[in-house]
Amino acid sequence: MESYEFLKSHKKSEFDLEISVDESPNVTSPLAHLFIVLELQRRGISFQNLALHFLGDWQKGIEYIGDIRQFAREFSLHAAIAKNIGGYKLSLHTGSDKFSVYPIFAQETEGLCHIKTAGTSWLEEAKVVAMKDPGLYREIHRFALENFEKDRASYNLTTDLSRVPNIDKLSDGQLVDLFNKPDSRQLIHITYGSILKAKDCEGKYVFKDRIYKILFKYEEEHYREVTNHIKRHLELLIRI
């Protein structure tokens, strides 16, 4: 309530507010969903998006893990609550690459939904680096392996590095296939901060500038990969 009043007092124009409980330890039941919304309304908090902790395992950079049919059954109840009360969208956090649930999410909400996705655009860019400068990608990959245990602390993951292929045994042409493997994707995905911030003893970026150089040089390929990736998300979300 205090945060909401702070926003109202400092914003000179209208704003959208999202309430997020997706990182709570327990799955949000339909009853809990109803309680949250009614309590927010009782307190006079106007919100436009509600991110719940939906059934299943929602990990960064990979497909939904769980029983799709069971998810569909429970999500239909959440969608019914949102429709009945009205005034807000259901929001899906960690929404990147959850292709199997998009049609359910879009259909049950009749398109009145919010999908939070951005991080896997980085994976498409890393894929371009692997295609166009295999040597640089190999450096990045090894660095990611060294920093993975440190960086994974902030995430809910089941990544098993033993399932990540040994890149010393892969040809340059095989590197791009790593981006089709969940464990390899998560390796590069969650270490992005360490990769882009890494500096040498002189204070120069180890990877960032070289990555940008590749993406600018091969801008057409860069845009193609990112566009196709986003398009895949949208095509599944607009099938209502």
Describe what this molecule looks like in 3D.
The protein is mainly alpha-helical. The chain folds into 2 domains: 116 residues; 111 residues, no CATH class. It has 10 helices and 4 strands; from the N terminus they run αβαβαβαβαααααα. A 4-stranded parallel beta sheet has the order 1-2-3-4, covered by helices on one side. Strand 1, helix 2 and strand 2 form a beta-alpha-beta unit. The chain is globular.
- The number of helices is 10
Strands side by side in the biggest sheet: 1-2-3-4
Number of domains: 2
Distance between the termini: 36 Å
Question: Uncertain spans, ≥5 residues at pLDDT below 50?
Answer: none
Strands, count: 4
Strand residue content: 5-15%
Give the ordered list of helices and strands: HEHEHEHEHHHHHH
Q: Characteristics of this structure?
A:
240 residues, mainly alpha, 4 strands, globular
